[in-house]
Amino acid sequence: MATLHTLTLPDGRTLAYSDLGPEGGLPVLHQHAHPGSRLELHAYPDLEALLHRLNLRLITPDRPGIGESSPRADHSFLGWSDDLLALADHLGLGHFALTSYSAGAPFLYASALRAPQRVLAAAVLAGPCPWDLPGAMRGMGSVRMYWGAARLHPRLLGFMLGQMIASGKRGLPGNARAAMMAEPDFEVVSKPGVHRDLIEKVYMTATARGIAGLAAEARLYLRPWGFRLEEVPVEVDLWHGDLDQNATWAQLERVAERLPHRRVHRLTGDAHLTIVYRHLPAILENLAVRARSALAPLTAAV
C-alpha cells in the first residue's frame, strides 16, 4: 500500500496523492473515477509488482474535496489541470504519461489540452462522453440513479453513497445484485473480498472527509465540460468493454468520433470493472511502450 503524501498548493489548499512503484520509473499521473479515490487502482491484485515489472511510477491525486484533498470553490475539469501540473512540478516531472478510469476521463482530456508538450502517452479506461449530448445516457445501467440523485440534491447523493458503503460491509445480496451491473462485472465483485476491497478503496476513502466534495464534483458532469474533445491535441488510447453499462459502447463511439487523435481498443465481452481486473497489465504495458518511444528523442536531444 502506498503512503499518503500531501502537497500544499499555491493557494494554500492541500492536495493528497499516492505514489507507488519505483521512484525512478516512468511517471504515470492517474485520474481516478467518480466516485473514486487515489487508491482505486490499488484494488488490483499485485499492483506494486506489476509497476516494478514495467518500471512505472503510478501517482494518483485525490481531486478537490475528495479523500484527503481540500475542496476548491471553482473546481472544474480545466481548473484541475492547474493542480495536476503543480503536482508534476513539485515532483520534478518534466514529462509524464496520463491515465484515467471511468469518469476521470474529462480530467485527463483537460490536462492533455492544457499541457500537450509534457504528455508522453495517454490512456482512457472506460471513459464516458459528455452527457450534455442528446441521448448520451441511453443504455446505461443502474448508475443512472447516482447521476439522477446528483442532479436532484446533494443530500440524496449522500444517502446513496451511504447505502453503497453499508452494502460493502454487509457483502453482496446474492444474485439480486446481478441485475444492477453487467454480468462480467458481477463475476468480478462476487469473488471473495473483492467487493469489500472496492468499497474501502473507492467509496470509503473518497468520503473520508464527507460527501460534499463528491456532490460538488458530480454536478460538473451534468453540464458542458468547458472544452471540446475536438481540441485535444494528443493521441489517446481508448480502452473500452463492449458490455459496459456505466459508460456504454455508444458513448465510446461518440468520443472516438470527436477526438482527432485516438486509437480504439475494443474489449469484447468486457464491462466496466473487468477492463481493470482483466486487462490492466496489457494496458499499462502498451502505455509504457508508447511513452518511452515518445521520450527517447527528447532524451537524445538533451
Distance between the termini: 35 Å
Average predicted confidence as pLDDT: 91
Estimate the global geometry from the Cα principal axes.
globular
Report the C-alpha radius of gyration, rounded: 18 Å
Number of structural domains: 1
Q: Uncertain runs with pLDDT below 50, 5 residues or more?
A: none
What pattern of helices and strands is seen along the backbone?
Answer: EEEHEHEHEHHHHHEHEHH
Query: What strand line-up does the widest sheet have?
Result: 1-2-4-3-5-6-7-8
Strand segment count: 8
Percent strand: 15-25%
The fourth-level CATH homologous superfamily is: Alpha/Beta hydrolase fold, catalytic domain
What is the CATH fold-level name?
Rossmann fold
What structural class do you assign from the helix and strand content?
Answer: alpha/beta
Helix count, DSSP H or I runs of 4 or more residues: 11
Largest sheet: 8 strands, mixed
Helix content: 40-55%
Please identify the top-level CATH class.
Alpha Beta
Instruction: Based on the coordinates given, report the CATH architecture.
Output: 3-Layer(aba) Sandwich
Written description of the protein model:
This is Pimeloyl-ACP methyl ester carboxylesterase. Residues 28-274 form the AB hydrolase-1 domain. It holds the Pfam family Abhydrolase_1. By secondary structure, the chain is an alpha/beta fold. It has a single domain, classed as Alpha/Beta hydrolase fold, catalytic domain (Rossmann fold, 3-Layer(aba) Sandwich), CATH 3.40.50. The chain contains 11 helices and 8 strands. It has helices at residues 47-54, 77-90, 105-114, 143-152, 154-170, 183-189, 194-206, 212-218, 249-258, 274-277, 280-301; strands at 4-8, 14-20, 26-31, 56-61, 96-101, 119-125, 236-241, 262-267. Strand 7, helix 9 and strand 8 (262-267) form a beta-alpha-beta unit. Helix 2 crosses helix 3 (105-114) and helix 4 (143-152) runs antiparallel to helix 5. The longest helix is centred in the last third of the chain and has 22 residues, at 280-301. The two termini are 35 Å apart. The mean pLDDT is 91.
